[in-house]
Design a protein that fits this description.
InterPro entries: Acyl_CoA_acyltransferase (IPR016181), GNAT_LYC1-like (IPR055100), LAT (IPR053013). The protein has 373 residues and is of the alpha+beta class. It has eight helices and 15 strands.
Length: 373
């Protein structure tokens, strides 16, 4: 049959939602890879997606690959997306913090020749129904819009604030610490991460419970995706694959940094395609403050320099992060630029409660890059 949108019928009665089989999954990667692969080759991109599908986060049904296909041809893919199962925390004044299943929607794509027919919207409505009806009992889901704030909001995915900090190094920027620096940081390898993630999850659960039970909660429900090792390992796998492809086999050795006292740390992601080191998560321990985060940010700038990345990106920077960055800027000799802004054209966070009905006002905590998918 013809695959031209002008010569085939594309009404709701002509299409079906299905979970992709391996052949359809590869066809989907071939289609969206035309837009998303660069600067990798298409086969390298498909290799990355296959590798990610084998991570602990995605394997054994952890990621479900949905397609909308023409019912006359199951390989005529009209739109597609991925649904990644994640663990999250929910706390409210009426309920202590608890771990619940949640999900993220990613890689929403419609081939250019089929756009303008409402296919992605129709697919997402069907996917929402499918996810809401699963036995996983997911409480809520998130997605990150690259097409502005209105499209997904109309589909029941209210957008949330997207503050970020970009630290950009000019040529000649010196990352060396001053002799008077009160804090130093040590670098983290893969082996260091699981224990820190476990500690972080416990601390975050306690923090959400305390916040929800405080007098300032105003009846809000607090949510956060768990910063567990399964989530971090997905990012690390992605970064390592791209590094080997784009840097002639170079392996990523360091995944973050920790203060000497061990109470504060960061994880990071080497995004060689965007030429940025992206901070996945900032943890500021009790008793630590600006000096600790400043040392961690300096370590991130050094790592970025080592990989030839001119920028370090932090999502949802807290007060200590912002002040630590400002101190580095003051010491930067005009060779470190800071930009505090809101993302408006990419990765805009949106959240949908099960059934589309949020339990009153929702506060999304720890809305950092680790939760992105």
């Amino acid at each position: 049959m013809s695959t031209d949108a002008e010569t085939i019928s594309l009404t709701k009665d002509d299409v079906l939602l299905a979970e992709a089989n391996p052949q359809q999954r590869r066809l989907t990667w071939e289609l969206n890879g035309v837009s998303w692969a660069g600067p990798m080759s298409l086969e390298e991109y498909i290799g990355r997606e296959q590798t990610l599908s084998e991570t602990a986060l995605s394997a054994n049904g952890g990621t479900r690959y949905f397609i909308l296909h023409h019912k006359s041809d199951p390989n005529l893919i009209l739109s597609a997306c991925e649904v990644l199962t994640k663990q999250a925390l929910v706390a409210s004044p009426a309920s202590p913090a608890k771990t619940v299943p949640s999900y993220g929607i990613a890689s929403v794509f419609t081939p250019s020749r089929f756009r303008g027919h409402g296919l992605a919207s129709h697919m997402l409505r069907l996917v929402q129904e499918a996810v809401d009806g699963t036995t996983l009992n997911t409480q809520f889901g998130a997605l990150y819009s690259d097409i502005g704030r209105s499209f997904y909001t109309r589909l029941g995915w209210p957008d949330f604030p997207s503050p970020q900090l970009t630290m950009q190094m000019e040529a000649g920027y010196n990352t060396a610490a001053a002799d008077s620096e009160s804090q130093e940081a040590t670098l983290l390898t893969d082996e260091d991460i699981p224990a820190l993630c476990s500690r972080d999850c416990s601390q975050l659960q306690a923090a959400l419970e305390q916040r929800a039970g405080s007098g300032d909660a105003d009846g809000k429900t607090y949510v956060a995706f768990l910063p567990d090792f399964t989530q971090m390992a997905w990012h690390f796998t992605r970064a390592s694959y791209v590094a080997r492809v784009m840097r002639e086999g170079r392996e990523v050795k360091y995944r973050g940094a920790r203060t000497a006292g061990g109470n504060s740390w960061v994880y990071w992601d080497h995004d060689l395609r965007e030429n940025k080191l992206k901070i996945l998560r900032v943890v500021v321990g009790e008793g630590d403050g600006v000096a600790a985060v400043k040392a961690l940010l300096r370590a991130a700038l050094r790592e970025a320099q080592d990989w030839g990345l001119p920028k370090v990106l932090v999502w949802a920077p807290g007060e200590e992060t912002s002040l630590g960055a400002l101190e580095l800027w003051k010491e930067g000799g005009g060779k470190l630029a800071l930009t505090f802004d809101e993302r408006e054209d990419g990765s805009i966070p949106s959240l949908r409660w099960k059934g589309g009905e949020a339990p009153g006002s929702v506060a999304w905590e720890a809305n950092e890059y680790y939760a992105w998918c």
